[in-house]
Amino acid sequence: MPDLINQSNDPLYRLLREGSVKEFNVRKEAGEKCNLANCDLRDADLRGLNAKGLDFSGCYFRQSDLRGIDFRDSNLEGASINAAKVSGAYFPQELTAEEIALSLQHGTRMRYKK
Q: Are 84 and 62 in contact (CB under 8 A)?
């Protein structure tokens, strides 16, 4: 099976990889679009991220700092959060607590309940 994780050249993705969350938020709120599906966001410190409306489907968040992020209006289907810091984070209601725990502990890809 080919590795689908993407290290994108998208300028907004690069900002997140570099830890420039505030600049990312400013540019996103100004209407700049980005494609984050299937991106490699492992070890990223994303605290303070405005995740509303973002597509994180298939993303790899291993050991990322996701504390306090509101993902309720984001797409996390197929994302993996193995060993991430998630204290205070909101997750989409389509994800069960069991799916989140399995991904957090074992790195499984999160599946939305249908």
A: yes
